[in-house]
């Protein structure tokens, strides 16, 4: 079963390369999509670490605020870069 799936993925990749799509632009678009989804990817684990963990393990206090600041900074830079790259394309 795995071999068949791998062969299908390989064939799909070959078809994509043979189609003539600009692969550099496709790669940049994938990076922009990743940057735009970064707040969601960082936000859900942070939310769970603040609420769903047992009381002794929860993010709280100065450490929780530092993690929130780091996540917001990274997500903000990612989204800002994605938007700037999209506008100045």
Textual characterization of the structure:
- With 89 residues, the chain is an all-alpha fold.
- It has a domain at 27-87.
- Helix content is 82%, strand content 0%.
- It contains three helices and no strands.
- Helix 2 (23-51) runs antiparallel to helix 3 (61-87).
- The longest helix has 29 residues, at 23-51.
- The model has no long low-confidence stretch (mean pLDDT 90).
Task: Summarize the topology.
Layout: H1 2-18, H2 23-51, H3 61-87
Task: Count helical runs.
Answer: 3
The share of residues in helices is over 70%
The total strand number stands at 0
| Apparent shape | flat
Q: Main sheet? A: none
Keywords:
89 residues, mainly alpha, 3 helices, 82% helix, flat
Give a quick summary of the entry:
By secondary structure, the protein is an all-alpha fold.
């Amino acid at each position: 079963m795995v071999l068949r799936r791998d062969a299908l993925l390989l064939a799909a990749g070959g078809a994509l390369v043979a189609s003539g799509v600009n692969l550099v632009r496709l790669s940049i678009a994938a990076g922009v999509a990743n940057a735009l989804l970064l707040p969601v990817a960082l936000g859900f684990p942070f939310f769970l670490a603040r609420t769903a963990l047992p009381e002794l393990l929860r993010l709280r206090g100065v450490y929780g605020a530092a993690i929130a600041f780091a996540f917001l900074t990274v997500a903000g830079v990612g989204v800002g870069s994605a938007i700037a790259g999209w506008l100045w394309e």
